[in-house]
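Reviewers of the previous submission asked for a worked example of the structure-prediction workflow described in the proposal, so we include one complete record here. The input consisted solely of the amino acid sequence. No template or homolog information was supplied to the procedure at any stage.
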Amino acid sequence: MKIYSEINWGVIGVGNVCEVKSAPAMKQIAHSHLTAVMRRNEAKAEDYAKRHQVPHWYSDANKLISHPDIHAIYIATPPHAHLELTRLAAEAGKAVYVEKPMARNHPECLEMISICEKYQVPLYVAYYRRKLPHFLRIKEHIHRGDLGEIRTVQINLKQALHNDLIANSETNWRVIPEIAGGGYFFDLASHQLDLLDFFFGPIADASGFATNQGKAYPAEDLVVGSFAFESGLLGSGNWCFTADENSAVDEVIIYGSEGEIRFETFGKGEFEIRWRNGLWEKFHFELPRHIQQPLIQSIVDELRGQGHCPSTGESGARANWVMDQITSNFPSDKS
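From that input alone, the workflow returned the following structure tokens.
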């Protein structure tokens, strides 16, 4: 992997996710610069560039990728474009940072990994929760043995059809399988499954059922799944995206032989732990304004030869594999 002293970023797909969550952080990090942005709508690309003081803007991804001063490409498009844009960036010798889920399905993820290996460029995935402070603390409690032996983990996510948790976009591509790979399960559960991978290591086996009960869109809206980690730990999940708004819940519970931890995946920087004595304690951490900044910092550090990013193509692909296994009964067109 080539080592750089300064990192110049190019961003493909400057939509809502790039307003606060991600791209602005590239200007806040030392030795990191936001050099160019691209969007198919040239007027919107220019508008973003001027509002965020970005020197160059394009409506053609190839022109951005071929910019000689850019070292790393952030692909912030819907998943259906990730594979081809990764190919173009890798062929140009640029490091690749791709939004989650990594692709529409696991085979596409494997192809992305193979392409980046062929051209000897690093591949990172935007599972930024791996670097947020409260999740790092949870991992510390787990591995320090504060819960005793971990027995099981449960995911429970229920959302109404229209809610604030699901990201806004100009078109609702997140529920069109040929664009997103699936529905909101692929958009949101990918974060949860990757986080469990971060805590406990890879999932070795998974199965489940998916269906469309609400008939509001083509993708699955109800998913149940079970999974077994390589370590032997067992877990389960229940995801529903057409629940009553009063039933909304976002909860992950980690049960140990001597305690438990409860947290929201998509909430504030908080979690609760029940200690051996039966008493509960709540922890709160301030989250960065640009929520992806700690992960982007780790990418910049690695590209400068001074650190390591914990979210790679290999780890990102594992989340896709688990989701494919859990939803394997649901007919969809992801190609």
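The chain has a mean pLDDT of 96. We consider this example representative of the routine output the project will generate in years two and three.
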